[in-house]
Write a structure and sequence with these properties.
This protein is mainly α. The chain is built from five helices and no strands.
């Protein structure tokens, strides 16, 4: 038998195994700051009337956040930049749609017609006129 207890052999074997060595998993430098994902801007862009475009901006922002959480800093930056540009485009498209609607609404000459009042006496007068003509108009 060996002079060392059985637990010591296992402990020494585990110390040298790559699965238990966490020193390789630690990053060399300080943690990277989180890049901007423009999630708030894309949520605000959802209130503009350009619905397919602003939903795409929201999806890009969520993907940028998920990419950072998985450790892909460059992918997070790229997706955040895409979210920014699509959100800005959505806001511009929405403002153009609102502007066109206002111009069309306030520049058309819509004048409502006066409702014609038909009194019983006018109806009877017409009925008598058609009766005197023999039903010919």
């Amino acid at each position: 038998m060996s002079a060392l207890p059985a637990g010591a052999d296992i402990k020494r074997a585990l110390e040298n195994s790559p699965e238990t060595n966490i020193e390789d998993e630690l990053p060399d430098g300080p943690p990277q700051p989180r890049p901007k994902n423009y999630l708030l801007l894309s949520i605000l862009a959802c209130f503009c009337p350009a619905y397919p475009v602003n939903i795409v901006a929201f999806v890009f922002a969520v993907m940028a956040l998920n990419s950072y959480n998985q450790g892909d800093i460059e992918g997070s930056k790229r997706l955040g930049r895409n979210a920014l540009w699509v959100a800005v485009a959505s806001i511009i498209i929405g403002l153009v749609i609102i502007g066109i609607y206002c111009v069309v609404h306030f520049t058309t000459n819509f004048t409502p017609r006066k409702p014609q009042k038909y009194h019983l006496s006018a109806w009877l007068r017409r009925k008598r006129e058609t009766a005197t003509l023999g039903g010919k108009c």
